[in-house]
Amino acid sequence: MRSEAFRWRAGYGKTAQEQSRLSSQQGVQKLNTVGILRKRNILLILAFSVLGFVVMGYHPGLEDDGVYLSAVQRDVNPALYPHDSAFFREQLQATLFDNSVAQFVRWTHMPVADAEFLWQFVSIVLIVFGCWSIARTLFAEARAQWAGVALVTAMFTLPVSGAALYLVDQHLHPRTVATAMILLAVARIMAGKRMQALPLLLIAFAMHPIMAALGISFCCILALTMLEPVHLWARSWRNSLVAAVPLGWIFEPPSPAWRKALTTRRYLFLYKWTWYEWLGALAPLLLFWILWRMAKRRAETNLARFALAVFIYGVFQQAVAMLMLASPVLIRLTPLQPMRYLHLVYFFMTLIGGCLLGKYLLKSSVWRWAVFLLAINAGMFASQQLLFSASQHLELPGMKPTNPWLQAFAWIRRNTPTDAYFALDPNYLAAPGEDYHSFRALAERSQLADAIKDTAMVTQIPDLAPAWEKQVEAQAGWSTFKLADFQRLKAEFGVNWVLVAYPQPAGLPCQWHNNLLAVCKVP
Question: Domain range holding 459?
C-alpha cells in the first residue's frame, strides 16, 4: 500500500492527460525561469558597460585617436588633409579599421562623431560580455562571475606595466575592437567550440593585426591546454618560437632621424625599464603559476588549465620580447612592441582577481558589495578626473567644448578652408590644459609635424623620419616666434595659418581668439 501511495504522489497514478499537463506546466515554468535569468544577465551586462564607460570617460581625438579618427575622416571626405595625410595613412595600410568605420558612416549616414561613439560603446558591451562568458566557464558561482566583470569595468583605464597601454582606451581604438573579438574567441574555446573562435580572430586581425597575433597565440595555447593530457604537447610548443615572415627589412640600417624619433619612446626599450616595470611584467606570471597549482590541487580543472595557458603564454611571449629587444641588430623590430602581450595578461588577471574576491570575500553580503563597487569605481573615476582636469569627463557628440584648446579646434573646423595648412607649437599636446587632444583629428586640418604624437608614427614608418625631423626642427623656438618666423614657415612648407598664444605676435592678422589662443592667417 505504501508503495502504491508513493507512486500516486509521484504522479504514476495520474492519467496520461494529467501527466502531460503537469509536464507542460513544469516546462513553461522552467522556460520562464531561464527567460528571467537571461533578461537579468543582459541588463547586468548593459549596466556594467554603462558604468565602465562613465567611470573611464570619453575623449575622442585623444592621443592615438589623432591617427585613427583622422584616417576615418579622410576616408569619408578625401578632400581633408591634403598636406599631411602620410602621418596617419601609412600605418593603417595593414588594417581595415578606418575603412570599416567610414563604410559604416556611409551606410548609416551618421556623423563620424556619432559613429565613433556607437562603435566605442558597442565594443565595451562586447568586452563585458566576453569577460562574463569567460568567468562563467571558470566559476560556478554567479557572484564570482559578476565580481570579475565589475572589477574589469572599473579598471578599464588600468595602465599595463611598461607598455604604455590601458585595458581600454577613452576613445575608439582598433585595439578595443580587437580585444572584444579576442575575449569572445577565448570564451568560445573555453566552451569547447573552437571553430567558432576562428571568425572572431579573423575580425580581430582585420582591426589590429599585432594585438590579434598575440590573441591568436594565446588562443592556440589555450586550446592545447584544454586537451587531455596537457603535457604531451609541451615538446612541440617549444619549437614554435619563430614565425615565417619576410625578414629582409629587419636588417636594413635605420636612419639617424628614425633613431632620434625612437629614443623618445623609452617604453619601447625593455632593458631600460625600471625595476617596478619589470615587477609589473613578471609578477602576474608568477600569480598565474600559483593559481594553476592551487586550482589543480582543488580539482578546479577549467580554472587550472586557463591559468596554465596564461602562464605559458606569458613566459613564451616574454622570451620572444627579450630576444627581439636584446640585440642592436634587431632594432627595426622595436616598434612592434612585443611587450604588448601583457595587455591580455592584465585583462585576465583583473577578471580572475575580481572573481576570486566575489567567491571568497564578497559572497552574498550587500554591504561588502556596496563598499567594493564604490571603492573601485570612485577611485578610478577620480584618477581620470585628475588626468584630464581641463576637459569634460564625457566629451559626447554635440557637446560644446569648455577646454580652450578644443574651442579653438572647433572654430578652425567650422571657419577655415579644407585645404588650410596650420602650424602650432610642436609640443602643444603636452601644454597645460591641452590634455593630449589631437589638433589634426579635431580641427580636421593639416598641420606641420608635431614633436610628440607624430614621433610615434615615425617609429612605425621610418620613411617619414626625414620629413618629420625637418618640420620639427623648423618649428624649434616656437614660443619666441615673430612674424618673420611664420613667414619663413610659409615660404618653406606652404603653411598659411597658425594657432598661437593670445595675444598674438605683432603683425599677425587674427580672425578669432579666446583668453588663451588665437587663430591667425600668415600674410
Answer: 404-521
